[in-house]
User: Fold this.
Amino acid sequence: MSITVVDREGKEHDFSVPTDTNLNLMEVCKGFELPVEGICGGMAMCASCQVYILTDEHFGERNDDEEAMLDEAYFVEENSRLGCQIPITPELNGLKVALAPEAP
Ligand code: FES
Assistant:
């Protein structure tokens, strides 16, 4: 499946991602060397993996830990999600996200 990630300079990156590897979106961004820190290792405790979902159909549901973290994070918008809380599945094909700014 393929996804598009817009970096903080506005450049679009199209990635083809296997769906059988148990990765999440934060890990995929890191794997493709985008500047996503993932400080907490995917525990929904740092928000350094925050992304904005740019495609209507893929917003999904925030989980409780994610909601709590986003409550305290910077630059949170309606379409914010934590990349580490988005497992890569075939249904995400066509997903487009933008990296949120780095927290001050
Ligand atoms: S990597 Fe820390 S919240 Fe996602």
About this structure: The longest strand covers residues 2-6. The mean pLDDT is 95. Helices lie at 25-31, 64-72. The CA atoms of residues 53 and 65 lie 18 Å apart.
